[in-house]
Specification:
With 165 residues, the protein is mainly beta. It contains one helix and ten strands; from the N terminus they run αββββββββββ. It has a domain of 111 residues. Strands 3, 4, 7, 8, 9 and 10 form a six-stranded antiparallel sheet that branches. Strands 2-1-5-6 form a four-stranded antiparallel sheet. The model has no long low-confidence stretch (mean pLDDT 89). Bound molecules: zinc ion (ZN). The site of zinc ion has 8 residues, from loops.
Length: 165
């Protein structure tokens, strides 16, 4: 069964991710869906308030010509509700790893404060010199894109990704 709110495939009677129950309605499927639409919409809006999307940021220092990782931290773009059809950028700018064709970015996705998912997204590096910014846009409660922007405003976008897997 696929959850009507978050798209998660699951067995049982309640979605393990967003807690939307399986609803049984007698009669026509389409008519049932129409009846349920307001309930699905309001649950989806409430769910979008609870999901935070972020990235892991790694810090380096150069010591006697050797590059060393000195730490990492999570940086959140915000809630899915704030990024619905609207790009949201991190307030930090980063070095563009121009020598590499692509960057592997570690995404952090939290539902209700729990770290729900952790995945790496490979995204091409912008072709120009200068700093880069990272952004997110959500297409609906199910999907998002990661965006990299260079100083001139040229954007490179990831493939579409599901928020809940
Ligand atoms: Zn769900």
């Amino acid at each position: 069964m696929k959850c009507l709110v978050c798209g998660k495939e699951f067995q049982g009677t309640v979605c393990p991710i967003c807690e939307f129950p399986i609803v049984e309605i007698p009669g026509d499927y389409e008519a049932g869906l129409r009846t349920l639409q307001p309930v699905i919409r309001s649950h989806r809006e409430a769910f979008a308030e609870k999901i935070h999307i972020g990235v892991m940021i790694f810090e380096y220092e150069i010591d006697n010509g050797t590059i060393r990782e000195t730490g990492s931290r999570k940086k959140f773009f915000g809630k899915v509700a704030e990024m619905m059809h609207r790009k949201k950028w991190l307030d930090t700018v980063f070095e563009n790893p121009l020598s590499r064709k692509s960057m592997d970015i570690h995404m952090v996705i939290c539902v209700d404060g729990r770290k729900d998912d952790n995945r790496t997204v490979s995204i091409p590096t912008p072709k120009t010199e200068g700093k880069i910014s990272l952004g997110i846009v959500c297409e609906d409660t199910f999907c998002f894109y990661l965006i990299v922007k260079d100083e001139k405003g040229n954007e490179v976008t990831s493939r579409k990704m599901e928020i809940v897997r």
